[in-house]
């Protein structure tokens, strides 16, 4: 009889455990479910969305904080490498190099051979031919390499902007690393006040980008 009673108790316990395991969790609810469509129902839905958004932010903050603490512990053992040096400036466009060479040639003193040249002949007094006279409506040709110069200048500006953005991101990472390093007390205790500033900024950027 004792064995039979023990077997019955075990079977009833298993049925109870199985029934509890099959229970489904109820959904998140705010206010009564039988509200009619109107101002109160919209207000309840708005409160529910706000609470869900806050819960998501809190969950993301907890995940990011745990990840940052893990990375900080790893960086304490292996410090990050120094940032790479900025790229060298691009070479000047070809037309600028030619202009520099022409300027150097103008600045050079005249050679001694030019001092003994014969005098030039006086210009003739007869009227020039009509084909050689400049036409007032004739437009001058644009200087060469204008398009290449504009492209080179645009490329130079883009590279300078990219380098400035890289330097700014590197400075932000270095500042965050210093703040996280200062958040450790002398006894190894973390100061959550300093860590939360950096982590909250990153959570806001993540939530704002996702929205």
UniProtKB/TrEMBL annotation:
Protein name per the record: rRNA-processing protein FYV7
Polar residues composition bias: residue spans: 122-134
Signal peptide: none
Organism of derivation: Glutinoglossum americanum
Transmembrane segments: none
Superkingdom as given in the UniProt entry: Eukaryota
UniProt feature, compositional bias: Basic residues: 41-64
Sequence ranges of Basic and acidic residues compositional bias: 1-22, 65-76, 98-109, 155-177
UniProt-annotated stretches for the region Disordered: 1-193
Biased composition (Pro residues): 78-95
